[in-house]
Amino acid sequence: MGVAKLALALLHVVAVASTPTVRRATASEYKALPYYPAPFGGWVDEWTSSYAKAKKLVDSMTLAEKTNITAGTGLFMGYVQHNASDRVGFPQLCLNDAANGVRQTDNVTVFPDGITAGATFDKNLLYQRGAAIGKEARGKGVNVWLGPSVGPLGRKPKGGRNWEGFGADPVLQAVGARQTIKGIQEQGVIATIKHLIGNEQEMYRRQTTDVVSPAYSANIDDRTLHELYLWPFAEAVRTGVGAAMTAYNRVNGTTSSENSYLINGLLKDELGFQGFVMTDWLSQITGVGSALAGMDMSMPGDPLIPLFGNSLWMHELTRATLNGSVPMDRLNDMATRIVASWYQLGQDRSFPEVNFDTNTKNAVGPLYPAAWPNSPQGTVNKFVAVQADHDKVARQIAQDAITMLKNKDELLPISADRPLYVFGTGAQANSDGPNACADRNCNKGTLGQGWGSGTVDYMYLDDPIGAIKEEAEKVTFYNTDKFPSVPKPTEDDVAIVFITSDSGENQYTVEGNHGDRDASRLNAWHNGDALVKAAAAKYTNVIVVAHTVGPLVLEEWIDLPSVKSVLIAHLPGQEAGKSLTNVLFGSVSPSGHLPYSITHAEDDMPASVVDLIDSGFIDPPQDTYSEGLYIDYRWLNKEKIRPRYAFGHGLSYTNFSYTKATIKKVTQLDTYPPSRQDKEGVLDYSQDIPDYQEAVKPKDFKTIWRYLYSWLSESDAKAAAEKAKTSKYNYPDGYSATQKTVSPRAGGAQGGNAALWDEAYHLSVVVTNTGKDFSGKASVQAYVQFPDGNGYDTPVIQLRDFEKTAELAPGEKEEVKISLTRKDLSVWDVKTQDWVVPEVDGAYKVWLGGASDDLTVVCYVDELSCEETTKGPVVYA
Ligand code: NOJ
């Protein structure tokens, strides 16, 4: 093994039972119960051949080679991050972010962020974005792309990283994840679904040392976990995702990276995940504990305090297997999962060498930056251009996401001949350069992305003012957020006011915001609300354009008579300009829809999601999901609180009708899905502890300072082997070494019981562009209303599927098809630990329309009929 190629480094729920087959819920206790042992992979048909090959390869590795591939090489240790096993032909893997492209490198595309892609409500664009990111990742030699992110789900409107995902709804997140993973993995790149789970706010997410700053505990009851937060993970696993990343925070009391219930129980057993599970960076807090809990890869390999050449795994995992603490079959399973994912994505056949370095922009640089000042130098950046024509899909997404909230007097679209007065620093790229702040940790100029690890370096930023000036002649730009002195406006003059709201990851504080929007709250930054009000006081035609990470409270100005039009342009990435002018000047109609609700006041949401944990000293803070299923529109609808703009809202320049709907039963459901398949072909791993010599560092091997190695000294290795004979590890309560073969009943295939995805009902609806002047694309959103009195408390309506039409000319029609699965009509039953259809063929209603508060067609599951209606399901007080 030893010749470790210059590697790189960048860089815890519910319950289970002590018996193997029965689980009980611990909703009220918020305690993650033990779930052991870590289930082996290889029993899912789609992965059989990859596992067979992986097992063969892993069987040929020495002990130290196996432990070597289960961790990174140390923080800042070069241009890849993971250790190789060269002797047997298993390469180092390059793992890299971001949520919207390839992070910290050159010649790549800055795609619109996840929230923007979600706002398109367009499955095809979500897929195309994934495919383009996958191609760029592959071209740079990234074996494992660290996305998509679906956790946070968007529970807390002020949560820092919601924009990396697709919107505050499990189905929107699930579809976003599925389409992205398909696109990424079709390019042979392993996608990573993250962060498992409950990372709904940034502050106090991470344990930094044992006592001073413990991570908060996301306390989530079993039903809420299944119906909201785990839902997108299930979809990702069903799609065949090759990797998963745990979260920094605790879940129901236990740190995610050593949470056996979460990893062994939910992810690997119930959801049948076959890939490998990695820690989030520097979040591992126990060595043996995390191994037993099902963790497969420690990233970047260091413990909480990095850069001392220490690791909780590597040489320590070697020691722990030699002395019998971590069973050999667990190590064999870890290594096999990693190698199996590599085979599954075809990376054994050919994969580009990594050709960039996140630590420097220079061609030549230190091969191991963390070994400073003694690192050898070499070529680390080859500047490979991978953008191809991806600007096109990036622009299309940025454009199709633009969400028009309001358009009084049909001010939009505007003619390019009108005198335009543009206000706000958000209209123009940061004059210091769009990448002036590392990981975009500032909000200066056009806001194309949030901040943190989910960001990409711009090659260019097509800013709005540049694009406006290209189309219009009479443009006056005031690059200021303070309303300037302006000439007396005429009636023809139009003011366009740019405002922003930013957030990101907790390692940066930006203008007092610690990742989450704790300082700015849901108000526009830089006194944007005052800027809008001042413009509205002067001009009679005001258009507001907001680049924002999430919901804003608009009340200070939304009803002012001159604020006629409002566009939410989300986070458009590099294509902020032309995508916007296409909408402003009317070459296309806006077709984006809100991937979250906009409320009149922050407090219209429950305190448990409004309040951020803002103290973490000594006691682990508790983030208790007391609102249960009722987040975003689910809460507002239950409480009859009228939002300012509802989830799914988005206007067009034209109008659409939804008519001639049909519903057809495709599969006869039963209360429970048919019994799951038993696991077949579970691999049989050896438990034999190898000779300690397999752990000893070869005599002539020259080590690099701080680099992480998996060897022990001869005396340490010998002592560990001796210890195995004399003492026994004190295994956690509930520990068992016997693989479960049938539990849990909700499992059985990737994502859970395969029958959950049986298509139960097919619906169709004819969408017609009823306008005269503009083409446009319509969104069809399908929300399910469970039968009254069905025995389970269910939200008034829940999004279950959506489709977007092609661009329809005036008068043109399209028949749109919607499909509902068994799972879509089920609730998670905590007693049986299974998905239940509470009323088979019951009085479910399926509502179709263009927004959660604009549902004009209803289909009845019991009668298999549909009708148009003016009375929607949601009634506000
Ligand atoms: C921490 C972030 O939480 C995670 O999303 C990211 O992938 C890693 N850092 C690596 O940068």
List the helices and strands and how they pair.
Layout: H1 48-59, H2 63-68, E1 95-96, H3 114-119, H4 123-140, E2 144-145, H5 170-185, E3 190-196, E4 217-219, H6 222-229, H7 231-238, E5 243-246, E6 250-251, E7 254-255, H8 260-270, E8 276-278, H9 288-292, H10 315-322, H11 328-344, E9 364-366, E10 377-379, H12 390-401, E11 403-407, E12 420-423, H13 464-471, E13 475-478, E14 494-501, H14 528-538, E15 542-548, E16 563-568, H15 576-584, H16 607-610, E17 622-624, H17 632-639, E18 656-665, H18 714-726, E19 759-769, E20 779-785, E21 798-804, E22 813-821, E23 827-829, E24 834-836, E25 845-851, E26 854-860, E27 865-868
Parallel strand pairs: 1-2, 2-3, 3-5, 4-6, 4-17, 5-8, 12-13, 12-14, 14-15, 15-16
Antiparallel strand pairs: 6-7, 9-10, 11-16, 18-19, 19-22, 20-21, 20-25, 23-24, 25-26, 26-27
Helix pairs in contact: 1-11, 4-5, 4-12, 5-7, 10-18, 12-15, 13-15
Bound molecules: 1-deoxynojirimycin.
Summed up:
The protein is an alpha/beta fold and 877 residues long.
